[in-house]
Amino acid sequence: MDGAALARAARSGKRHPVARLVSLMEDTRAASASARDDALAYLEEEARQRGHRSTIIGVTGTPGAGKSSLLAATTREMLRLDPEATIAVVAVDPSSQVTKGALLGDRTRMRTSVEETRLFFRSQASVTALGGLAPPTYLVVRALTTLYDYVLVETVGIGQSEADIKYLADTVYLVMSPGGGDDVQMIKAGIVEIPDAFVINKADTPGASAAYYQLRGALWLARPFDADRVAVLLTSARRGDGITELAQAMLDHRNEAQPPDHLAERAKHFFAEWVRDEWGRQGAQVLEPDPTMAGRCDPATNFGAAQAAFTRAMQRHLAGAESGSGGEQIPR
Ligand SMILES: Nc1nc2c(ncn2[C@@H]2O[C@H](COP(=O)(O)OP(=O)(O)OP(=O)(O)O)[C@@H](O)[C@H]2O)c(=O)[nH]1
Ligand SMILES: [Mg+2]
Fold first, then answer.
1. Does any ligand 1 atom lie closer than 6 A to the CB of residue 199?
2. Is this structure's pTM higher than 0.85?
3. pLDDT (tens digit, 9 = 90+) per residue, 11-27?
4. Is 13 found in the same domain as 88?
5. Does residue 268 share a domain with residue 179?
């Protein structure tokens, strides 16, 4: 597969070419590794030449808090407020936890016309046992930052994924809904410390303002140093309350937009995640003595090649362990 050709086609912003590019980024097979690297290299170079910058906004929160409904309403409003803005949404579905109906719901809520090139939506199954981001999310997001001004990533917040989204996103919004008992759990898990801003959704239901004051109180306890500066927005995706404010808050992150390859510096973290996901503890043991892969394959510039190299090293390691020779420690 010709990765650069796919990337060139995706620059049109048309849904199908972008979808094919995203599928390539999600393809973890070694056979597609060089196509992925070529596509990313092309996109980042092309974006650099245009002076393109983008910002990544993570939207996390408890299951059913209304993240998808909010994103559907908010992205529409963002496009209305800023007629130039382009937005990609990646929703990471915890496929092990929700029914197929919910999955389908996520997809239909974000349905837009095929001609709409300013908005792209992708739902991605999260297959990781850790409950965090799907392993290919990093590469997908990295590719999308070269094409869109805003990349919004929806994840379900269950511990580990909060920390993960902090690595991936420039800004993290936590969505809560009243009466869910969310606040108490958040403080316990220390999760309230991670987000940059909070959204209390379902403001049309009882308990929304109580939840607001509970959260404000929790913020004073958990992060007294910046509690008064943290935004807490009240919204109703159903009625449309607070959507303009949320859309404007997200648009304002444009000021912090970054050049196309700014995710490169986070490659090491997500490469280690991939190793753990793909090869478990044994993989981590092989990677640990030589996290730079002896300088041979830098995941920052050649993520796919680094994966392929590590896979080969791992296979040799395992074969060696079986034959009793102890195998190789350093991936080559
Ligand atoms: N009353 C009310 N219900 C809402 C609101 N926003 C979303 N919902 C409902 O809450 C349910 C969950 O909404 P989703 O948007 O799927 O929530 P989510 O956080 O994306 O859910 P998961 O991705 O499954 O974790 C749906 O039945 C929505 O119709 C709101 O503002 N008010
Ligand atoms: Mg959702």
1. no
2. yes
3. 999 989 999 999 999 98
4. no
5. no
